[in-house]
Amino acid sequence: MTAPANPSSHRIYPIILSGGSGSRLWPLSRIQMPKQLLRLTSSRTMLQETVLRLSGGASMAPPIVISNEIHRFIIAAQLQELDIRPTAHLLEPVGRNTAAAAAVAARLVASLRSDGILLIAPSDHHMADVDAFREKIAAGVHHAANGKIVTFGIRPSSPAIGYGYVGRGEPLGDDAFTVAEFVEKPDLVRAEGFFASGTYYWNSGIFLCRADVLMREMERFCPEILQCCTEALVHGSADLDFVRLDRSAFESCPSLPIDTAVMEHTRQAVVLPMNIGWSDVGSWNALWELGEKDPDGNVMLGDVIALDSHDCYLRSEHHLLATLGVDGLIVVDSGDAVVVAHKDHTSGVGELVARLKELGRTEHDAHKRVHRPWGFYESVQAGERFQVKHLLVNPGAALSQQMHHHRAEHWVVVRGTAMVTIGDKTMLVTENESTFIPIGSVHKLENPGKVPLSIIEVQSGAYLGEDDITRFADRYGRTDRDSGV
Description:
Elements: E1 12-18, H1 46-53, E2 64-68, H2 72-81, E3 88-92, H3 97-112, E4 117-122, E5 126-127, H4 130-145, E6 149-154, E7 165-173, E8 176-183, H5 188-197, E9 200-210, H6 211-221, H7 223-234, E10 237-239, E11 242-244, H8 247-251, H9 258-263, E12 269-274, E13 278-279, H10 284-290, E14 299-307, E15 313-324, E16 329-333, E17 338-342, H11 349-358, E18 369-372, E19 375-383, E20 386-393, E21 401-403, E22 407-415, E23 418-422, E24 425-429, E25 434-437, E26 443-446, E27 453-461, E28 470-473
Parallel strand pairs: 1-2, 1-4, 2-3, 3-11, 6-12, 14-15, 15-16
Antiparallel strand pairs: 4-9, 5-13, 6-9, 7-8, 7-9, 8-12, 10-11, 16-17, 18-19, 19-20, 20-27, 21-28, 22-25, 22-27, 23-24, 23-26
Helix pairs in contact: 3-6, 3-7, 6-7
């Protein structure tokens, strides 16, 4: 048996994958605010919980975050809440699955430290026993340092068919095994056989390996992915505190999970089983299982009253939610949408989201409240040729200098003081005062004060879409491609 390496002698770079959309947790999880950015299992977001469990200790570098570019400011704000500055925040112009994200991370880490170790982890998983997870990382370090690609297997609690499975081979010590096979989401008969055997584990999607080892295996099994991602990183560009991957190179990259691109083929795979109270939080039923229940088995969050109701997950973000005489239901009110489902059918929520897209609706994309680097705006009311919004601008923040081709805007200051520029004229607008921005006027809104600026905005015109914007200057580096104010 090989003596465990001292983890502090190796530099571990947590790679936080934050590219998923989490459609199975609609209506809370949406394209512009997916589940990893929500507070679902604690007072912190799932991304924040992931970053914290992978932080601390001399061996851990600050995280490398890989995300969709539309989430960059929200993620930056959430990391700032934790007082954590990442090693890098890489922006994907399009989603290309986990193999591409891992390839980019490996290239970056190899450029920072030749023997750097990657700890690749999804940003939207829950772990009840963080200390036990960290112990497993420490146990896996010497295998990774010796050229192995370590995956962490979850001891299954049922023959679930929604997970991939990892079959163990020969023992290696430290409770580690060679990997006999990877199986992607088997049918029920095979899953039952895996569960009964006691030698198969759920695939957690968490990997530990040296950057150079991963690149070597990718060069062998998926060279096109490695080449495209290398070009995307080399030809990427700095944007404030972010790194934008080159769009052309990254779009040409094949979209594959790291499991099928590398792990199913490599002979260097090692599995470390762990029992840490893990969940991928992949459904509303999973959140019911994780939640604190009342004597009737109900999980209730928000303004909720339940009478003669049992084993339900009841969550309301805005309104009073009341149930009477129901059992085993999921009821979630996000303010602009309500989903009602039986717990046995929550896997079909993704189909509801697909249907919304087919119908051309927008509820799958954004909430009523949309976050921006300067604060947020929230839809209040909309009708033919008009829309009412509430804008909150943080102290010292500013919207871009911009112009709209099809709409005029009326601003009423509810709280604070606004500095408004229209054309070459700048004015201060204080509480209970208003101003008007005609169609086609170049304008800018700033909050010069020390308290949040609250504004009611009334838009009127033939077209009120968020993509009706031309930006002339923006302190956050946004372009017209970033639709919205």
